[in-house]
Amino acid sequence: MQLQSVLLSLFLATAVVAKGDANKTLSTAGECKQMKQLNNLVELAANTTKLDKVTKGNATKAAEIQAKASTASTELSTLQSNTTLMSACAVINAAQDEEDQCQETFILQKFVAFAANTTAVSAATKDNATKAAEIQTKASAASTKLAELTSNSTLQAACPAVAQKDECKIMSGLQKFVDVANNQTKLDKLTNGNTTKEDSIKAKAAIAQTKLTAMMSNSTLVSACQSLMTSQDGTTTSQAAASSSSAAAKKSAAVIVKGTSAVGAVFSTMIVVAMGMFML
Ligand SMILES: *[C@@H]1O[C@H](CO)[C@@H](O)[C@H](O)[C@H]1NC(C)=O
Ligand SMILES: *[C@@H]1O[C@H](CO)[C@@H](O)[C@H](O)[C@H]1NC(C)=O
Ligand SMILES: *[C@@H]1O[C@H](CO)[C@@H](O)[C@H](O)[C@H]1NC(C)=O
Ligand SMILES: *[C@@H]1O[C@H](CO)[C@@H](O)[C@H](O)[C@H]1NC(C)=O
Ligand SMILES: *[C@@H]1O[C@H](CO)[C@@H](O)[C@H](O)[C@H]1NC(C)=O
Ligand SMILES: *[C@@H]1O[C@H](CO)[C@@H](O)[C@H](O)[C@H]1NC(C)=O
Ligand SMILES: *[C@@H]1O[C@H](CO)[C@@H](O)[C@H](O)[C@H]1NC(C)=O
Ligand SMILES: *[C@@H]1O[C@H](CO)[C@@H](O)[C@H](O)[C@H]1NC(C)=O
Ligand SMILES: *[C@@H]1O[C@H](CO)[C@@H](O)[C@H](O)[C@H]1NC(C)=O
Ligand SMILES: *[C@@H]1O[C@H](CO)[C@@H](O)[C@H](O)[C@H]1NC(C)=O
């Protein structure tokens, strides 16, 4: 469930990025994120090894990146000269790092559990012993990293709240998916009236509804999610935007955003449906 939530946060972050296309002044969290990105660019341009790897040895491309980094460096200095912003970012980034580490903990726990389950491994590798051995090697590295993360009691104390937030996001995602499936107009638009596709979505939505109902029967969880929403209303979007800091996440976010601006509303409905199915 937590791995899905990582993708879900990416999805939420993406939705925010997509909305932010218009000229909106950035929130403080947004500015912190921008600083991180500018810094990444400056670091990339300064590291010839990395630059060479990214550009696959294309000198023209490398020069382009360096020119962009030069502008970025100026922007970064301006932002960094704002001490109010810098201290706010220190707090925001620490919270973000903590959350990222919790998410990493969840993913590693899931992976280690999977690797220890011979039935699951042989199914996933289709009984390929080489592949199974590769998984064991990775699981060994994962265990080491996991031990390091779980030994940090400060971090572990913060993680249950992060897991709960993930559950809230999953509930919200499932609800959105069910809403789409219950809206014939949206469904028609999405499937171009293909009833086979519609039926398949409706069948998945029925499963989603069952899962949602089960989750919502936990009143502790529901009230926790409600208070999270009220307390974070207004800040959630910026926090979501500040998450998913990994390069891979950013890359796919960029791809999704591109698609979003091109296709618009139907595309975002599609994301809702895709995510909903994914969460089952
Ligand atoms: C967005 O910002 C740019 C540069 O700051 C400005 O030239 C442009 O007019 C703005 N667009 C809108 C829609 O406000
Ligand atoms: C440059 O990037 C490489 C590869 O990503 C990394 O191993 C190395 O530590 C970096 N060098 C510096 C000076 O940051
Ligand atoms: C190198 O990058 C430039 C700019 O991105 C691109 O136009 C060009 O086709 C690339 N050259 C090769 C050999 O890939
Ligand atoms: C410094 O950053 C803070 C927080 O983002 C902002 O409110 C303030 O206007 C900035 N000050 C300057 C001089 O840009
Ligand atoms: C433990 O985790 C917290 C939160 O991520 C972090 O601030 C702290 O530096 C970590 N402590 C150690 C010893 O790694
Ligand atoms: C192992 O994986 C299988 C197939 O995914 C699953 O049905 C089973 O419950 C798992 N066993 C344990 C002990 O988690
Ligand atoms: C098993 O997996 C390895 C490594 O991924 C691959 O090279 C090999 O072809 C696979 N063997 C079979 C019989 O599929
Ligand atoms: C169904 O979706 C359409 C188009 O997105 C929207 O205008 C309408 O309000 C929705 N209907 C309901 C009952 O939510
Ligand atoms: C409707 O969707 C199904 C499943 O994706 C597909 O197999 C079928 O060809 C589609 N029918 C039409 C008329 O496009
Ligand atoms: C209900 O949700 C809370 C908060 O997320 C969790 O600690 C608890 O284990 C859940 N109870 C059940 C019965 O799933």
Structure description:
- There is one protein chain.
- The chain starts with a helix and ends with a helix.
- The chain folds into 2 domains: 79 residues; 181 residues, no CATH class.
- It is built from 14 helices and no strands.
- It has 280 residues and is an all-alpha fold.
- Helix 2 packs parallel to helix 12, helix 5 packs across helix 8 and helix 8 packs across helix 10.
- The longest helix is centred in the middle third of the chain and has 34 residues.
- About 15% of the residues have low confidence.
- It binds 2-acetamido-2-deoxy-beta-D-glucopyranose (10 copies).
- One 2-acetamido-2-deoxy-beta-D-glucopyranose binds next to helix 2 and helix 5.
Brief descriptors of the model:
globular; binds 2-acetamido-2-deoxy-beta-D-glucopyranose; single chain; mainly alpha
Given the C-alpha coordinates, what overall shape results?
globular
Mean pLDDT value? 83
Oligomer: single chain
Q: Which structural class matches the secondary elements?
A: mainly alpha
Strand content: under 5%
| Helix content percent band | over 70%
Q: Report Rg.
A: 21 Å
**Spans where pLDDT lies below 50 across 5 or more residues:** 12-22, 234-263
Termini separation comes to: 9 Å
Enumerate the distinct ligands. Answer: 2-acetamido-2-deoxy-beta-D-glucopyranose
Taking the sheet with the most strands, its summary is: none
Q: How many structurally independent domains? A: 2
H and E string? HHHHHHHHHHHHHH
- Give the strand tally: 0
Q: Treating each run of at least 4 consecutive H or I residues as one helix, how many helices?
A: 14
